[in-house]
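ok so for the tutorial part 2 we go from a plain amino acid sequence to predicted structure tokens. step 1 is just haveing the sequence, like this:
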Amino acid sequence: MMAGEGEGGRELDEVTALQPAKRRRVKSHAPPQPVCILPARALPVAGGEAVQVVTLSHPGTGKPAQFVITNAEPVEVFELATFSDSICRSWFAHDTVIQDGELLIGTVVDPVLLALPLLCRARDTSESFLLLDHILDDAGFPEFAALEHCASIHSRVAQVCDVRGSDDFRAYRLSDTKVMLWLNRKVKAVATKLETTQITSIASAAHSSNFARSAAKSKPTSAQLTRYALGVVLEYVPPPLAQKFVEFMGCLDAAASAVVEPIAPEMKTVSDNVLSEPLEDYSTATSKHVPKKAPTVVQKKLSKINTKGMKSLSAFFTKKK
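step 2 — the prediction. this is what the tokens look like for a chain of 321 residues:
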């Protein structure tokens, strides 16, 4: 008889068959779905193609950054900025809880700003004019080729480049003069936008600033708004071009272009040698004469009592020595 045969073996098989099978917990490796805010025009229509989320090098830092390229006409590019803090947050999306509390906010960006590093590279590596698809060819970030489909991209690139050829066959080469004038128009547009939004206080850093609207009478001057707008635009300009543009704008200190002192309401100041003195002259103040009240009948009787040798009321509550 082989092992497992007979009554004992049959009972063991029946008991094993009656035991419930252990369920294995399968961990979900699906990536978390971030919450993103985009303008309505950037969202795909019903039945349309979804937007493209691509990774491109940031023109100011050269580091990888995420952008959204729409598929519907006109094709636009939106930069995805991540908002997060130390507070634990979650999102409720329909019947789903998204543990990642980060928020992605999409803001429209000019595709020419993204192409500036590639235009600089093409001008520095070749003396000839190049086609736009050759300029946007980047092995590290192949998604740059999608910028060629942006709305009015050829007329936009022509604002910063010298152009050769016809409408069907255009070649471009970056022009420093055109770039400086184009960036200057960008700075003026940002400054005008700040002025129309009635900004009354500007934080110190352009990349981490908060605007404050208040009822204070003091408002930023035109020079302060221009300096702040310059700092905003320079965040999207490659460092070599940024230095040239700062010199073009007549700024002696590149760092000061992105730093603006907070604008405070007008306050009276005093010199150091009078800080310990009162700010008001009390010598001219008139004192009012307060007449004394006449004593009451009870107070007159109490004043006639001889209190010599009497203990005060507080003496009964002190410790005896």
